[in-house]
């Protein structure tokens, strides 16, 4: 199920795994392959990952399986699961005619999440393991600056869209939009290219789904950011693409701290003020304010005509 030790480094590089993590993963491979119980657990994880593969929006929770890994593999067991799942993932992509370069850039999010873990903890590991299940199931794709996740409208969101004139009921296909880290500025031109690409991509490779809207749930959509950032800033211009679904009432202060500074547990008093976004996030919290997850949407018909 796993590639041999000689082939593993090349495969890890294809997944953008940080160079400083590769030797450890190759070395510990023998600990995994020499343990029949750990190998059975690996197989169970892969089977669970692909359970009900067409049931998008119901990502299997592998936390219990990951937590059952031997202690010396606990931080990296997820990497081996995703590596073992890779052949089935790529086969599913090929069945849909998805170009190899899109597969490669999408699945390289494994390396990105390992880089996030190393930035925060200084060791080999995987941040947001459940998040990566979406990529390897074929539910999420990176198309330029943005990531797009196949999903369905929920009970609270569908009525909002229907009231705006969209043919929407709970269960109607939609796309969840995500903004990956380590990918440069969120410029309007880069977003425009991603959105145009997505319209064509999903019409060609998932023609039966016909998503009606793109949704985004992110601290980047908190309207309070407009108090601190110029009207022509990338973040404000990104916000202006969206209509509001609803407003959260529970603060989510650690989200911007995590994404802007790399660690959600950093003391607010010492947050740097080097950039406009750093000053916005830190100054607002130091003044006693809170940040909230913004929930937005915009119509997103797919196909060549809609991209014109």
UniProtKB/TrEMBL annotation:
Q: Is the keyword Acyltransferase in the record?
A: yes
Stored Gene3D superfamilies: 3.40.630.120
Q: Which GO terms describe its molecular function?
A: acyltransferase activity
Q: Which residues form the N-acyltransferase N-terminal domain?
A: 6-138
Q: What keywords are assigned to this protein?
A: Acyltransferase, Transferase
Q: Where is the GNAT-like C-terminal domain?
A: 140-298
Q: Which InterPro entries match?
A: GNAT_C, NAT_N
* Source taxon at top rank: Bacteria
Q: Which Pfam families match?
A: GNAT_C (PF18164), NAT_N (PF18082)
Q: Does the keyword DNA-binding apply?
A: no
The secretion signal range is: none
Name of this protein: Acyltransferase
Q: Which organism is it from?
A: Streptomyces fodineus
Q: What are the top taxonomic ranks of the organism?
A: Bacteria, Bacillati, Actinomycetota, Actinomycetes, Kitasatosporales
